[in-house]
Amino acid sequence: MAPPWYPIPPEGYGGIELLIYLLAQELHERGNHVTVIGSQGSRGDFEVISLAPSSWEEKLGTRDQEPLNLAYLLEAHDLVRLRAFDIVHEHNYTAMTIAASMGLPTPIVATIHGDLTEGDARFLSAIDSKVHLAGISEAQQRQVAGVRWRGMVYNAFDPAAVEVSLEKDDYMVQLARISRDKAQHLAIEISRRVGCPLVLAGKVDDAEREYFETEIQPHLGESVNWIENVAGQEKARLLARAKAMLFPIQWEEPFGIAMVEAMASGTPVLATERGAAVELVEPGVTGFLARDVDGLVEAYGKLGEIDLRRCAERAHERFGPARMADGYESIYRAEVASVRRA
C-alpha cells in the first residue's frame, strides 16, 4: 500500500515509492501475485489499483493533505477487507493506525522509515502487537526501546539508475541535503587537507539557509563546486566518476541511500562512525570509517587499497532489490505462518 501522492515508480522525487516499485517488481518476478494500491499513473508488471488521482500531488503541504490521505487509506483498507490477500505491507503511521483499529484478519507488515524519537517509541510499542514492524537498519531500531520488531531489511537501490566506473576523475562528492548534521563544512575541510576537489550536490532548505550562506557558500570556487539539483544520468555519472564519497555525518542517520548508490557505482565511501554508516560501509571493501575529520583524512590515503570492482559487486549483493525481497519474504512467511497456527 503506497502513499497517494506520487505514482509507482516515481517520475522524480519519491523514495518510498521507488522502494515499493523495486520490491513489487522483484516479488512479481519470483512468481508471487503482487497488488500495489497507489496513485493514478502507477505501473508495473504486477497488478495496480489506483485509488488516488494524480492531481492530489498538488495538495501536498496544503490543508487538504491530511483529509485526502485519510480518505484514500480508508478506501484502501476497505478494499483489503474485501480481497483475500495473504499479507498487506504498509509504510506510514496513519495506515498502520487504521489497519490496527479495523481489526483486519490479514497480517499487516509495516516498514518504519526515518529516525525515531521517544514519541515514536510510545506509538510503536502501542501498536506492535497488531502490526508487524520492520526497521531499515539496526541503528534505527536502537533509537527506540520497548518495541517488538519482526525484522530488519535494508533499503535497496535501483540498479538501473547507477553506472559502474573503474576510471575515476580527480574529485570527491557528497550527495546530501545541505545541513549541519550532514556536515558539508567538514567535507570542505577534508577536501582542503587532502588536496582533492569536492562536489557538493544537494538542496538547501530554508531552515539551513544561514548555515549554507555562512559556512558553505564562502568556500565555493575552483576547488569546491555546488550543484543544487542533480538527477538521472547526470547523478549516475557524478557518483561513478568520483574518487570517493564523503559522508562526515554528525547525527545518527538511520540509513543513507546515497552511500549505497556510490558503493554500487564502484565509488568508496569515507564516513564517520555514526548511525547506519557503521552497518553499510565495510572497511577495506566498500570504503572506510573514522571517528572524526583527522581519521577521514587518513582514510583518504588508503583509497588505493579498495578493489573498485569488488566494491560495486558487494553493494549489489547487499543492497540490490533481490536482497531486499529476500528479507521481506522471510518476514511475510513468518507472519502468515503465525496466523495459520493461531
From TrEMBL:
Residues 166-292 form the Glycosyl transferase family domain. InterPro entries: Glyco_trans_1, Glyco_trans_4-like_N, Glycosyltransferase_grp1. It holds the Pfam family Glycos_transf_1. Coiled coil: none annotated. Residues 13-117 form the Glycosyltransferase subfamily 4-like N-terminal domain. GO terms for molecular function: glycosyltransferase activity. PANTHER family: SULFOQUINOVOSYL TRANSFERASE SQD2. This is Glycosyltransferase family 4 protein.
